[in-house]
Write a structure and sequence with these properties.
The structure is a single chain. Helix content is 41%, strand content 15%. It is α/β, with parallel strands linked by helices. Helix 1 links the parallel strand 1 and strand 2. The longest helix has 17 residues.
Length: 129
């Protein structure tokens, strides 16, 4: 590399993914980053309001098609705050699912472990169903 070079070094075990590990890109920029996601990413992690993420997801579909890729081949993920009221958590999860987001990354709640346990009991079964 530019900063450090190794001669004769090997890395074991080799990654099992072929041809490479999945490429996840977290980005929201429509001019620069979404076209890169459309061409290269296996998964896209998005940020923003429900409406902006749905709009950007549709844009990503168009950009992927333009790049010769099946838009469904790009997984979509987003963060889900567990510190909001449960009805808001449910609505956000439903909006993201409707916009094509299949992965929700639960943010550690500021309220701590008890809130996480409540999420697992009260909300997660509905989302997983």
């Amino acid at each position: 590399g530019r900063h450090y070079q190794l001669a004769g070094a090997s890395y074991h075990p080799k990654p099992i993914q072929r041809p490479h590990p999945p490429i996840w890109i977290g980005a929201g920029g429509e001019q620069l980053m979404l076209p890169i996601v459309a061409r290269h990413a296996d998964a896209w992690h998005a940020f923003g309001s429900d409406d902006s993420m749905a709009r950007k997801s549709r844009l990503l579909d168009q950009l992927a098609e333009k790049a010769g890729r099946d838009p469904k081949a790009i997984l979509r993920s987003a963060s889900l705050s567990l510190s909001r009221p449960w009805d808001q958590v449910r609505r956000r999860a439903a909006a993201l699912r409707a916009a094509g987001f299949g992965y929700l990354i639960a943010e550690w709640p500021s309220e701590g472990k008890g809130r996480l346990s409540a999420f697992v009991e009260k909300v997660l079964p509905e989302l997983a169903g």
